[in-house]
């Protein structure tokens, strides 16, 4: 990454880690249990990266676990080669978004229409997992989240895919819940 972009990214990450204010405080989700509820409901994570000077976003299935002191690890897999991996090997810094669609809110006034939703947005770094036992564990975490089934992967199965995790210490949730009108 050119140094001007690296400096910009470091400044942005520093600002985020100091805590930027969410405009809609009434929708902010900071409680880790509520964030985990959102992670449990959603199945797709959009991962944004930079390819040279162009943005590139891909939707990926994920599994997750909390690690360390409140950090989040999102586990993903892919083919062993491709554009996404080329980009991430050059620059492992990413932004990610997980969202669960709810349902539309229709109003007589179109400008008052909207959508019920839950989401998590964060910044992190991709770490490629090479250790075969860790790859098997990561694939099991991913599969459990996607299917609600426990599966143990073999080393042979794990060798056939690329497995990586996004490690994030900077993430927040946002939610517009359905209100009871009864």
What would you say this structure looks like, in words?
This protein has 182 residues and is an alpha+beta fold. The protein has one domain: Electron Transport, Fmn-binding Protein, Chain A (Pnp Oxidase, Chain A), CATH 2.30.110.10. Helices cover 30% and strands 41% of the residues. Strands 1, 2, 3, 4, 5, 6, 7 and 8 form an 8-stranded antiparallel beta sheet that branches. β2 and β3 form a beta hairpin. 21% of the residues are buried.
Write the layout of secondary structure elements.
Layout: H1 3-17, E1 28-29, H2 32-41, E2 44-51, E3 54-61, E4 63-67, E5 71-78, H3 83-90, E6 93-105, E7 114-129, H4 132-147, H5 155-159, E8 162-176
Antiparallel strand pairs: 1-8, 2-3, 2-6, 4-5, 5-8, 6-7, 7-8
From the structure above, extract its key features.
182 residues, alpha+beta
Low-confidence stretches: none
Domain count: 1
Terminal CA distance reads 54 Å
CATH superfamily: Electron Transport, Fmn-binding Protein, Chain A
Assembly state of the chains shown: single chain
Helical segment count: 5
Shape: globular
Structural class: alpha+beta
Biggest sheet descriptor? 8 strands, antiparallel
Average pLDDT for all residues: 85
> Remind me, CATH topology?
Pnp Oxidase, Chain A
Q: Can you name the CATH architecture?
A: Roll
Strand content: 35-45%
Could you give the order of the helices and strands?
HEHEEEEHEEHHE
Q: According to CATH, what is the class?
A: Mainly Beta
DSSP E strands, number: 8
> Helicity range of the residues?
25-40%
Rg for CA atoms: 18 Å
């Amino acid at each position: 990454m050119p140094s001007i972009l690296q400096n910009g990214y470091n400044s942005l990450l520093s600002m985020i880690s100091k805590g930027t204010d969410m405009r809609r405080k009434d929708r902010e989700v900071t409680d880790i249990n509520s964030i985990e509820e959102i992670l449990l409901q959603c199945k797709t994570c959009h991962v944004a990266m930079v390819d040279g000077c162009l943005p590139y976003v891909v939707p990926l299935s994920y599994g997750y676990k909390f690690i360390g002191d409140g950090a989040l690890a999102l586990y993903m897999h892919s083919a062993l080669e491709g554009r996404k991996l080329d980009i991430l090997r050059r620059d492992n810094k990413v932004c990610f978004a997980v969202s669960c669609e709810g349902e539309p809110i229709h109003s007589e006034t179109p400008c008052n229409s909207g959508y019920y939703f839950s989401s998590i947005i964060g910044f992190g770094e991709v770490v490629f997992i090479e250790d075969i036992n860790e790859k098997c564990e990561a694939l099991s975490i991913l599969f459990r989240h996607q299917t609600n089934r426990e599966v143990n992967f073999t080393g042979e199965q794990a060798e056939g895919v690329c497995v990586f995790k996004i490690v994030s210490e900077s993430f927040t949730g946002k939610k517009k819940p359905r209100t009871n009108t009864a």
